[in-house]
Amino acid sequence: MITRPLRIKRKQERQSEMTTEEMERAIEALLGQSTQFNAALDRVREVVERLSESHVKSLEDMQEMRQSQVKMSNDFQLLTGKIIDLTDSVTRLKAQSEADRAEMREGFNNLIIANEVTRKLAEDVAKPAIATSQRISNLESNG
Questions:
Q1: Which pLDDT band, with edges at 50, 70 and 90, does 38 fall under?
Q2: DSSP secondary-structure letter at 27?
């Protein structure tokens, strides 16, 4: 068992002693990783910046949509009011049209009656005139 701890200790001693070349390679590797990390970090920053700009644009678009929605809601209320007014107007026009139609029917009926009365009067006036004309014709032919 004593040999084993000694082996581990010797291995650790060898590992702790790096040559200059190994140290330079390790430093270069660290610098390479640092450069890669910085490049990756720059890409992440760019992505975050684009996302931030996109988020701001989205918020602006949402605000514009809200304003459009408010305007559309107001326009819809105005349109609804105009439709109600138009419906009321059509209802009034219908009632007025029915009243006018009834008045015109009454006027036509009165004209028909007046025409019949006028025809009857013309017949009544014409009968004595015809009778007189016939008497005169008879007197002239007899006389």
A1: very high
A2: H
Amino acid identity of 10?
A: R
What DSSP letter does each residue of 74-127 carry, written as one string? Answer: HHHHHHHHHHHHHHHHHHHHHHHHHHHHHHHHHHHHHHHHHHHHHHHHHHHHHH
Contact between 18 and 26 (Cβ < 8 Å): yes
pLDDT band at 14 (very low <50, low <70, confident <90, very high): low
Taking the C-alpha atoms of residue 75 and residue 69, their distance in angstroms, rounded to an integer, is: 10
Read off the pLDDT band of 129 (50, 70, 90).
confident
d(CA 23, CA 46): 34
Q: Is the pTM of this model over 0.70?
A: no
Max CA pair span of the chain: 187
Q: Is the dihedral of CA 52, 57, 59, 60 positive or negative?
A: positive
Residues 6 or more apart in contact with residue 26 via CB below 8 angstroms: 18
